[in-house]
Design goal:
2 copies of one chain form a homodimer.
Chain A: E1 2-6, H1 35-43, E2 52-57, H2 58-67, E3 76-79, H3 85-95, H4 98-101, E4 104-109, E5 113-114, H5 117-134, E6 138-142, E7 153-156, E8 171-177, H6 182-191, E9 194-204, H7 205-215, H8 217-228, H9 233-237, H10 245-248, E10 257-261, E11 265-266, H11 271-277, E12 286-294, E13 300-311, E14 316-320, E15 324-329, H12 336-345
Parallel strand pairs in A: 1-2, 1-4, 2-3, 6-10, 12-13, 13-14
Antiparallel strand pairs in A: 4-9, 5-11, 6-9, 7-8, 7-9, 8-10, 14-15
Chain lengths: 352, 352
């Protein structure tokens, strides 16, 4: 099996800790390792670093190489510019040696958490066996734990309709569902027939490229042009149609299968999401670094540098970096983008 | 007239900005100047720096000298240890040249704010004339603006009992009142017959020393011993009885007079008190430094270094220094000492 880790993201949800030059996948939010490095180490028992490719941006490539010294440098690929996931995945697979492309490739985000890595690896190996045997595209969908409106969903075919040659819990995907309304999200959760789309896919590399040729001929021609003239990468890459892999390929396929993943997955999409997985002290405060809370509970106190001291406050996020402090209610963690937008409007590139 | 500025204080109410090596009088809370330097410049039109003495501690003496370069260095006196205000004032006056001691001396705290310095100087000059003419001890009491329980009060003799040779608003002090209950504080405010004790006194230096000899003979003998053997200052100063000037002298005197002071006085006793005098922006936020507030109002945001960004919070104090962050509700500003005590208990001298 080969892995392709997508590490080109540039989110702002962990501002002021995350910056353009240090996006979420390069942050050590929970322990001492970055999320990217966690992703690599989690794979190691089933996919060693010599079988890992990483797709990132030119701006981040050096940091990625430093963070993953055991991955062969030629397998750390830099997109000249971000064109969404379809070009990133297809170009990365096309860049692999032909022998590797014939194997099963697992596409994985670089910035997710798996609370139970062994369960994750088990699902990954079982899915890989299905891909090998049936040459199907597989996805690992996460068993939903609440009625989330911020994720896409996979709707499954009813079990009884599936003449299933695979392991018992392999299910066929009926369709990809965009972020739902609250009402639909509740319905999805109750039905037991939906999984969260976590952006994890498995396929034979050569099969993926065949599917690209079939469903996205313009993208396919672009990739062949790049392969024929690597010196023109920057020019040609910028012309690839910018679409997500879901939209460009996956939603067009019949017969995608999925294995439900129940392994403490989190996309760590906000400071509040981080708060939920960090251990709390006796006052219900979570955090990192040098912190002091007096008559204060239920706060996330994250001191990347220096000391945070709070008195008499509840339910806050307080983050301290070398140059900035953020204070907001936990429940408004999603809105940190408003601060980032305001800083951008004020020309404060030094803080972004 | 001579001035004696008491600059030995070591408060923790402005932690994390105030530290042992940089107490409140050495902070620039409102503008670019320290409160100590503000005190000196406020006096300048009536008492030039050559007529100013400063009593501070050995630990702060160098910082005080740097802050007040125009004050003759020999007039910046360092107590070997803090023994409260009676020894500090009496020793400082005893240390003045005899000619200076014969003049009116105004004793002033180094860390108060006067919103209207001209009104303050006017009251000071009028009080000095009473001292010169009648050789009385005078105090400037602040016209109370709310029922404060954190200050001492001066109860005044009723006006009709006072055969008054002085300017019309000079009043005799009946007694010094310790910090009152809430009920009494309200009564004091309504009666119009009480002033806040702001620790500002005027007297002839020689008269003060006579009163010390009369009411505090042990202190008086100690001062003479020091004058006779300056080399034994450290040893002898430590034996002086440690009392406040109010308790040791002022409360024992008949005939102390006062002039009411109505000049935007604040003792800046807490972050909340600072918030009250800083100008607010359109969202009701006050502060200093590089700050950003989105959908957040009524906060004090004080960035001594770096940036503070807040979202969706109200009524908070957020302070950022080079090494620490403080977050607490404004209304609990008095309790910052709890954090300081906890840091001390944890051996965090680096933050104190």
């Amino acid at each position: 099996m080969r892995a392709l880790i997508l590490a080109g993201g540039s989110g702002t949800r962990f501002w002021p800790l995350s910056r353009k030059s240090r996006p979420k996948q390069l942050l050590a939010l929970e322990g001492e390792r970055t999320l990217l490095r966690d992703t690599l180490e989690r794979l190691a028992p089933v996919i060693g670093p010599e079988a890992v490719w990483v797709c990132t941006t030119e701006a981040l490539a050096e940091a990625v190489r430093r963070d993953l010294p055991e991955v062969p440098p030629e397998q750390i690929l830099s997109e000249p510019e971000g064109r969404n996931t379809a070009p990133a995945i297809a170009w990365s697979v096309r860049s692999m040696p032909e022998a590797a492309r014939r194997e099963v490739v697992a596409v994985l985000p670089a910035d997710h958490r798996m609370g139970d890595p062994a369960a994750f690896r088990d699902a990954l190996e079982r899915a890989a066996r299905v891909v090998e045997r049936e040459d199907r595209v597989m996805t690992l969908g996460v068993v939903p734990r609440w009625a989330e409106t911020g994720y896409g969903y996979l709707e499954l075919e009813p079990v009884e309709l599936e003449p299933d040659p695979s392991p018992r819990d392999v299910r066929r995907v009926r369709r990809f569902v965009e972020k739902p309304s609250e009402e639909n999200a509740r319905r999805f959760l109750e039905s037991g027939n939906y999984l969260w789309n976590a952006g994890i896919f498995l396929f034979r590399g050569s099969t993926l490229l065949d599917l690209v040729a079939l469903h996205q001929p313009e993208l396919s021609r672009g990739l062949e042009a790049i392969a024929a003239a690597p010196g023109r990468l920057r020019e040609l890459y910028g012309r690839l149609p910018a679409d997500s892999i879901d939209y460009a390929i996956m939603e067009k396929l019949d017969g995608i299968a999925t294995l439900p993943l129940d392994c403490g997955w989190s996309d760590l999409g906000s400071w509040e999401a981080l708060d939920e997985i960090l251990p709390a002290d006796s006052q219900g405060n979570t955090g990192r670094g040098d912190t002091l809370a007096v008559e204060a509970g239920g706060n996330l106190l994250f001191a990347d540098q220096g000391t945070i001291a709070v008195l008499g406050v509840e339910g806050l996020v307080v983050v301290r970096t070398g140059d900035a402090v953020l204070v907001m209610p936990k429940a408004r963690s999603q809105e940190v983008r408003k601060l980032v937008a305001e800083l951008a409007a004020r020309g404060r590139g030094d803080l972004l």
